[in-house]
Write a structure and sequence with these properties.
Elements: H1 3-65, H2 67-79, H3 84-119, H4 126-132, H5 135-151, H6 156-191, H7 194-237, H8 247-269, H9 271-285, H10 290-331, H11 335-362, H12 364-372, H13 377-386, H14 389-405, H15 410-433, H16 438-464, H17 471-498, H18 502-523, H19 529-533, H20 538-547
Helix pairs in contact: 1-3, 1-4, 1-5, 1-6, 1-7, 1-8, 1-10, 1-11, 2-3, 2-5, 2-8, 2-10, 3-4, 3-5, 3-8, 4-7, 5-7, 6-7, 8-15, 9-10, 9-15, 10-11, 10-13, 10-14, 11-14, 11-17, 12-13, 14-16, 15-16, 17-18
Length: 552
């Protein structure tokens, strides 16, 4: 492999790492503010909060979610051919589309909020949903600008804006939830329902943070774009390419790129709202109390999903960073580079996903107590039951992006549709046949992601010729995680017996687990020096590994 290709492929992991670190930081900030938010709203309020987001996410996906990926893909493809004018026209076309689709979706969400929330048996979510409505327009425009920078090959604007967005989200969410919870409780006292209205208005305060966070993220990337625009304009004047795409061609290409991505992401993510509708209606038919159903869903959406989504966000970041470079390699028919990039991306994700899943499963109860002060067996068992889904969702999320990167836009749509049908049938079987209530949702979600993994793997092999290596990619990370799991289980028990302080012991145990996994992975030859250098702080990790005589 020549040095330029090697450097380009290493850059994929570097850029992916930047976005992954930013996503991780954002998720950690999100996790931190969810702790006081859970305390303010309770499981009941988190049900309202989660329901509003499930509905919002569907319309967000339909109107805006596919824009960053499509823009980065199309801009990257044109820049690889030196077509800077066409790349900029693509950006302007996408921005126009974002204003139209985002504005329309925001209006639909605002005026349709009473109907949507009533369908999901959570009518008091209407306040939170109406507050969220304008966010779709903001996120649509924000996504186009982020996609433009990603298409240029830099993830830094997206990464920093994510952190800015989440910090503002955290501050406003907690403050507004606290203020509006009290306001809602006073209204509820007059109406004879203080608890429900307090939770409903508090949830609206929580969603206000999302709105403000997105607005500040947009202001940040907007400022960067205005600063970079004169530079890009000068580069456009040096564009020697003859082909100039008309705006009718731009919109045609955009729609043909966006629609398949939109369909696959909609089907892939719509399972959440379908699950809620099926679960709440069937649980009601089976005679469970409304308060218990709300409590179960509040734990599921407010605690379980919050924790499991942290490692999955790394896969989302890696998928976003892979698409432009994969598209560029695929457009010039560099099959070897395509295969190497697919391999390095999958290995990167599996090295992270396996220990996260193992740690969540083994330390389920300590983690729930550490983060949410929840020592209930129900919450811990939910986390144990769904820990494996971290691996499946990480892989399925990444593989969706890989297929889109090699211009196989229809494959994720088809695979997601098949997986969704199987998922719904499986969920109904678990609910009616085994009466597993909330655990049915957790198992069905994991099964959905597993089916997606299998179908996407078949598609990747078919369309790229990539043959999946198993031992270093899957087996060694799993075995290293298993060793870590055994160690952290007994270490936690031992330290807790001597020093019964859960939060401190859990943090110490997580640190020990990270070291054990790192050592086990190197001893089993699961990763070499060249690969380790591509990780965040890779030079430091290599230096430590050499001092410990783990690398030769």
């Amino acid at each position: 492999m020549d040095s330029s290709k090697k450097k380009s492929e290493a850059n994929v992991l570097v850029q992916g790492s930047i976005l992954a670190i930013a996503s991780m930081i954002s998720r950690v900030i999100g996790l931190v503010y969810r702790i006081p938010l859970n305390g303010i709203l309770g499981n009941h309020g988190m049900d309202y909060y989660g329901t509003a987001f499930e509905i919002y996410n569907v319309l967000l996906i339909i109107s805006a979610y596919s824009l960053p990926l499509a823009v980065s893909k199309l801009v990257s493809a044109r820049l690889s051919k030196g077509q800077r004018v066409n790349a900029y026209r693509m950006f302007k076309g996408a921005l126009t589309l974002a204003l139209i689709s985002g504005g329309t979706a925001s209006l639909i969400l605002y005026f349709g909020a009473p109907t949507f929330t009533a369908m999901l048996k959570t009518p008091l979510s209407v306040f939170a949903l109406k507050v969220l409505a304008p966010t779709i327009l903001v996120v649509a425009v924000l996504g186009v600008i982020r996609g433009f920078f990603q298409g240029l090959g830099t993830m830094m604007p997206s990464a920093v804006s994510q952190i800015v967005e989440q910090i503002m989200n955290a501050i406003v969410s907690v403050a507004a939830a606290f203020i509006l919870f009290g306001y809602g409780s006073r209204i509820g006292a007059v109406l004879g329902n203080s608890e429900d209205y307090g939770a409903a208005y508090g949830a609206a305060g929580g969603t206000l943070g999302t709105n403000m966070g997105a607005l500040f993220g947009l202001l940040f990337v907007g400022f960067l774009f205005l600063a970079y625009k004169p530079i890009f304009k000068r580069q456009m004047r040096r564009d020697k390419s003859r082909k100039r795409e008309s705006y009718s061609e731009v919109f045609h290409v955009l729609l043909w790129t966006i629609v398949p991505v939109l369909m696959s992401t909609t089907i892939y993510n719509i399972s959440g709202i379908i699950d809620q509708g099926i679960f709440k209606n069937i649980a009601t038919l089976q005679g469970y109390k409304a308060k218990d159903i709300s409590n179960w869903w509040g734990i599921f959406t407010g605690k379980y999903k919050t924790i499991t989504n942290i490692p999955i966000s790394i896969a989302s970041a890696m998928a976003a960073s892979c698409v432009p470079s994969l598209t560029a390699a695929f457009s010039v028919k560099d099959k070897k580079s395509v295969k190497r990039q697919i391999n390095s991306s999958i290995r990167f994700i599996m090295v992270i996903a396996f220990p996260c899943a193992m740690g969540i499963g083994v330390l389920a109860s300590p983690v729930m107590q550490l983060l949410f002060n929840d020592s209930s067996e129900l919450a811990a068992n939910m986390l144990r039951a769904g820990a494996i889904s971290v691996v499946f969702y990480s892989m399925s999320t990444l593989s969706n992006g890989l297929l889109q990167g090699i211009n196989r836009m229809k494959a994720p749509v088809r695979n997601a549709a098949i997986a969704l049908v199987i998922h719904i049938a499986f969920l109904l079987m678990l609910l009616f046949g085994f009466r597993l209530n909330i655990y049915a949702v957790i198992y069905a979600n994991a099964f959905f992601a597993f089916v997606m993994c299998v179908l996407n793997a078949i598609s990747i092999k078919k369309y790229s010729g990539y043959r999946q290596e198993v031992i270093k990619t899957f087996l060694i990370p799993f075995l290293s995680s298993a060793v870590m799991g055994v160690v952290i289980f007994f270490v936690y028990k031992g330290i807790f017996y001597v020093f019964p302080h859960n939060k401190i012991v859990t943090l110490i145990d997580i640190g020990i687990g990270a070291v054990v996994y790192f050592v086990a992975l190197l001893l089993m030859k699961g990763i070499d020096e060249e690969e380790l250098l591509r990780f965040p702080k890779g030079h430091l990790l290599v230096k430590i590994a050499h001092k410990m005589h783990l690398l030769r």
